[in-house]
Amino acid sequence: MPGGSSRGTSASLCRRIDQDKCHAQRNGKFRDLYDLCLYKGDTLREHGDHEGALAEFEEAFQICEVLPDPTPLDKAEVHRRRGECLMQLERFDEARDNLKSYLSLAEKAGSHVEQQRALATLGQLYFVQHQTEPQPSDRLISKARNAFLKSLRIVEDNLAETLGEPERAVMKGRLFFNMGLLYDAVENAKAIESFKFALVQFVKHRESREDLCRCLSVLTNIHLRQGNAENALSLAGRLLDIGRETKQPDIKCEAHLLRGAALLQVGDRDEARIAFKHAMRQKTTKREDHEHAVRCVKLSQALRTWDLDLKDAPDVVERVRLHEKAGDALVHCLLQRPALKEYEKAVEEALSRPDTIPSKKLADLYVSLAETCSDVREYESALKYYRLELAVRVDEPDEIALTKLRIAKMLQKTSGKESAEVEDAIREAVTLSRRAGKPSLELECLEELVLVRGKAEDEIQDRIEELRAAGADDTDSSRSSQQSGTLSEIDLNDISDASDSDPEFSDSVRRPRKKLEEKINTKGETKLHKACIDGSLKKVKELLRMGHSVHVRDYSGWQPLHEAANYGNLEIVKCLVEAGAN
Predict the structure, then answer these.
(1) Helix, strand, coil proportions of the chain in percent (round to 5)?
(2) Does pTM surpass 0.70?
(3) Superfamily of domain covering 208-312
């Protein structure tokens, strides 16, 4: 296992460092001893041993007192490392004290580079702390933003003469990236703008590939969440280019997964299936990515089967079941946008013959729609579906109570905590959960009421403590998550390789059959793409006569029609449209 090998390497390295430390101590080489303590601490931290790292940093701090050539930055370095370790351990007060000491020493030393770094790390601390809070903290968000902006000002105003443009570009890129994460966490529309600024900075400095890949990945996921599939395809294509260029399977696996998700959004299930299979075949070191790729390949096979079943479905009940099943499976694979379409189709089928579908089933479909809309941050739509659910839900006080609570949470997103509707909905949820005999749900509702009000009345606090004492907080009151047992039943050996024509796998034992639509270059273009770019109407017509698909996409998501339009080849555009391109 990679993890076991990594731990063994770490232990071996630490033993060698300990030997070097003993030698340095015997010979009174305290500067070497100080550096070795930092080196061992960094090594332990990289492998997740933050407590062990803290012990090394404490030793380094003590050595600072006997250094023959001490500087203010010696202790500053220790404070920074301590702060970063303590942040990982969620000991935020101690982390903040160390990072503020780091900043103070950096200012004393007159080092703008270290001041910039200290402020950037403080910003990260406030952001990480915000993420662990049960409720969003405007105070922490404001502190994080201010720290990032101060750090950015230092980069722009004080480092032009001491650092080269590439180094400053990376610094600015990381700050814009962190601000993007911050804005996205609080659902601020400035997130995409910040990530785009970061992207520009990382592109300027080609050596910062890791930063560039992270930025492309986050931006792609945001576009997927927002339903901007074409943008997501383009960004995933750029990520795949980097993966191919650097021959890094981790990057290629992630890029193929993102491409598959985007292709599903545009309705190209065959190409999505191929992308997921490419992801699965990468020798990635990230187990979770490989497992996700396997799930997505199984999902693609299941979707193909269900599409065939839909054509033969004898009645509305079966069609509703199949669409709901597809929606649940897509949610299970974190593909919410395509799932929404399946749930919408299920509701459409159910409403076409309401006499055949029980009201409970329709209510459950509305819940699936509402929860999935909430996942993609479409809160107004979620509210609409929760209210439609209430209109058809009968004789289920526990389900109605839970929906009232969810409505209160959606209203906070759309109208704010001050809305009178919020408290009314929570109070109704409390009453209904008590009537249904659901103490865990009642506790959740009461705790939400306290958060909304900002304080707890004696009567409410007494009831909360009573429910906790009875163990109400040990049970889960939420609806069971949407799962798909169907995917676990699919055997990967049953999935055909016939559609795999990517040259990336040409070194496998069994070479794939050459196809008309085979990619001819590293951009994923086909002969039809190339003919459209070159403006060769004759070649386009010849390829279409031979049966070339008009819907095939390159790695950036472009179809031949896009290329013909981009290059102003209008006759080719007409030809492709007549051949079925859209």
Answers:
(1) 75, 0, 25
(2) yes
(3) Tetratricopeptide repeat domain (1.25.40.10)
